[in-house]
Amino acid sequence: MKNIIYSKYTNERNLNFQIRTSIIKNKDGTKTVEKVALNKISILHLENIYKNYKILNKKYCFNEQIKVNKCKINKNKLEFEYIEGISLNEILDKLLLDGRYDLAVLKIKEFIEVIYKTSGKSKKFEKTEKFIEFFGDLNFPNNIESLEVNNIDCIFSNIIINDKWNVIDYEWVFEFPIPIKYCIYRALNNYINTEIGSKLKSIDIYSIFGFNKDELEIYNKMECNFHNKVMINSQFSQGEKYYFENMIEPFQNIIRNRYTQVFYNTGNGFNEKESYYIKEENFIGKNSYFKIKINDNMKGIRIDPVSTNCEIDINKINIIDNFKNKINIKDKVLINSNIKKKDKHIFLHNDPQIYINLEDYNIFNVQYIDIDLIINDIDFNIYNYYVDQQDYIRELNVDIENKQKHINYELEEKNKYNKYIEELENELETKNKHIKEIETSRGYIYLTKIKKLIGK
I need a surface site. Which of 236, 244, 270, 435 has the fewest CB within 10 A? Predict the structure, then answer.
């Protein structure tokens, strides 16, 4: 029997591109990944993904470093291998958290070398009708290099590294010229707009990889146009368009209209299909009241109040039954805040979440959950101070770790030296013992007497 352990729905996209991606645990314990069309129109998109697999597999078939995740099509479903390993995203995260910005840059250079320098001969970029359809009719400088086949889905999170560089997703592959630097920009831009990846902005990562201001403006417009092509008719398209057009810096801006997303777990975990949105306008600094209706088959609730870093004051979270009895669970819920002081929670990331496990409460006839909270912009002086202190602590920890390694090395060398001295002493003792045995032997005593007699 198959068991779905994770699902992601892209129902915020244009109908042409709406699919569901699931990780499946099979009866024998192995895992596979499935992509399924959410409507008849998006079946064509699945077929294009399978076509992309064949294109990339042919492109990289002689490259010993790169492997394209195997894909097979079964009616209106795609089945992929589940690749074990660590993503390039995770590798970079660890390097940045350890303060190894130099190694992170080298790893990104290796990514460019492996993925793009081995992708065939480049040629001068020329706009085509297909390019304009997806990315807009933009003006480019002369001598822009491009490739004929481009997987713009080749971002750091879609690369799994084990003995090879595994390309696990290739939803967006185009067989017309696209500037190579846009593909690199897209991978960089996707990563540096994550919480940890944003640290690369402090070293001007775009300049390190040869991007100037004019190029960034062009590639940002390309990204915005592509996004609008895919996300058209989405309820979030305007907000996300604002994000791309203005290149919002993390922790410096907040969209004034809020979509609170509520997930309910009925046994399949939290997933997009079993969720809904609550929209509020101009909510900053004001009380937010909302009720979440509960059904008997719900095992848990997850509330994502807003998709940005913020400060949340929780006034109340009550479970209400059919008899209007209230159970205050404010102090019992799980909240993924970075800092907590009484009822105030500070989130230094862009994904605040409140978890309520309904199975923890021995209560029948639950009617709804009553929530009252206030969301405020974060104090960036506090945030910057916190980040500086965290960076300083990490530097100290690295220094301590290096000193401890040095101490361990010195101790190891000392132990080797002591062991060597001990071996010499044992050898000396053995030789002294051997000498004594010789001196006390009958032959040696007899020889000594003869020497005395002859005067030698």
Answer: 435
HSE, side-chain direction, 13 A CA sphere, residue 323: 5
Contact of 144 with 135, CB cutoff 8 Å: no
Question: pLDDT value at position 65?
Answer: 87
**CA 154 to the chain's CA centroid:** 14
CA angle 16, 17, 20 (to 5 degrees): 130
Burial 62-90 (b: 16+ CB within 10 A, else e): eeeebbbbebeeeeeebebbebeeebbbe
184-194 residue pLDDT tens: 999 999 998 88
Measured in whole angstroms, the distance separating CA 315 from the mean position of its chain's CA atoms is: 33
Indicate if the alpha-carbon torsion angle 76, 87, 388, 336 is positive or negative: positive
Instruction: Round to whole Å and give the CA distance between 363 and 322.
Output: 11
* pLDDT category of residue 249 using cuts at 50, 70 and 90: very low
User: What is the arrangement of strands in the sheet containing 300-304, beginning at the earlier edge strand?
Assistant: 275-281, 257-265, 300-304, 354-357, 334-335
Residue 58's closest CA among 123, 119, 121?
Answer: 119
Say which amino acid occupies 274. E
3-class DSSP state for residue 170?
coil
Report the sign of the C-alpha dihedral through residues 100, 106, 109, 110, in that order: negative
In this prediction, residue 276 carries a pLDDT of 84
